[in-house]
């Protein structure tokens, strides 16, 4: 039988740390009046830190009279005290410290290759300091963006900025952001900010990198434009200029014509006068807001938005969704019951129902423009539709492609477009898409809509979600 004695071990090692008996390492930490010499034991440092294991084998540390001498001026005394306590005792209480000190601890732990501590500190900041992170994204990104071991933290910060970018881009510290960070943000398709606003912020950032440039280009000479062109050259291909309206282009892009490649500028002008002419300059797809879903991605939201607007098939590359999808109900979270569905979705207005079919990964669903109101009857609408989305394997190249099927309500059946019965889940038409009482089984039988969306018609839902459709 094994027994755990870690508590006693930790307590005894803390005595060794505090008494510094038989120490053979001296580490000077901090600078000037804020410096301090710490005593430690080489064997413990080697065992706990790959950094010290390497340093104590090589000529990194000076050895005087049998004592290893280290200097770490870039680490504060407070942070190094925390690190030594972790190394000796495996004990740390981050709740006792200021978030700024915890961020410094993360950087120091990364330098000393304390992987377990790095992981712990990252999760602490993410889970316990969300408000502080929101207010200090520029500082945080400056500290951790280049640290390979902090991928979790970097991804969290980038995701958070993309979902709420206004505070980051509008902050006074924004112009001090490193170029690589800004490039990484502009590469994201889920950066939820209007393209014209991004462009204006990029101009502000670029002008700030050159001391003799003001924000307004009306005061710039040819040399000023040339300097800014060199600074922003890598940013131009990442901006979706074709997503801007004619007025936005005229007011915010046209004055900066010297910054854009000639072919791009001509394409932009042509797109506003003759939009049917194909572009010559490479065009990125529109940015799409992320969606809180276990079933669909932003590309599906774009597709469904296109159908809501009356489109058919897939939207063009330049289609910009006019809607946001707000999650109301999820079966695995809220229970697969009519009551749970009705409690979350009744009287919420236009919505999209999404179901993932068990075993196949196929997605089916429907759009209800008039909402669920417990009518206990059929409801009339000419704008509802049902659909299916599936991945299909192409045998010629062994690649999968996504295919979709759209089925709108028949013009002579609009009075039966929606069946709104309180004891059932969502129902479209007279059996075209029915979710039964248990809310995870159902069937699809063509009757009121144009096409059958599922064959065979009976299904079991692996997941079931409903989204409120909000026009931007």
Describe the structure.
The chain is of the alpha+beta class and 472 residues long. It contains 18 helices and 15 strands. The chain has helices spanning 6-19, 42-48, 50-55, 77-89, 99-111, 115-128, 130-135, 137-144, 151-163, 166-170, 179-186, 195-208, 222-232, 246-253, 262-273, 298-308, 331-334, 338-345, and strands at 25-29, 36-40, 62-64, 67-72, 323-330, 351-357, 363-368, 377-379, 385-394, 399-408, 418-420, 427-428, 433-435, 441-443, 458-471. The strands form 2 sheets. Strands 5, 6, 7, 8, 9, 10, 11, 12, 13, 14 and 15 form an 11-stranded antiparallel sheet that branches. The chain has a 4-stranded mixed sheet with strand order 2-1-4-3. Helix 1 crosses helix 4 (77-89), helix 4 crosses helix 5 and helix 8 (137-144) packs antiparallel against helix 9 (151-163). The longest helix has 14 residues, at 6-19. The chain is flat, with a radius of gyration of 30 Å. The mean pLDDT is 87.
Intertermini distance: 64 Å
Instruction: Give a count of the beta strands, DSSP E runs of length 2 or more.
Output: 15
- Helices, by number, come to 18
Radius of gyration: 30 Å
Query: What is the subunit organization of this protein?
Result: single chain
Q: Segments where pLDDT lies below 50 for 5+ residues?
A: none
Q: What share of residues is helical?
A: 25-40%
Which structural class do the helices and strands define? alpha+beta
Shape: flat
* Average residue pLDDT: 87
Largest sheet: 11 strands, antiparallel
Strand proportion, as a percent range, falls in: 15-25%
